[in-house]
Amino acid sequence: MNRSSQEEAVCRLLEKRGVLTTGEIAGELGCSSATARRIAGRLAENRIARRFHGGIRRIEPDANQSIPFPLREQWFSREKRLIAETAAGLIARNSVIFIHGGSTTTWLGNLIDSGSVITNSLHLAELIRQRFPSDEGPEVIIPGGTLDRKAGILTGTRAERAIAGYHADAVLFSARGIDEAGILDTNDATAGVARTMIEHAHLAVMLADHSKFRAAGMARLVPWGAVDILVTGACPENLPMLETIRKQGVKIITVPCEEGGAR
Question: What is this structure's pTM?
Answer without folding.
Answer: 0.74
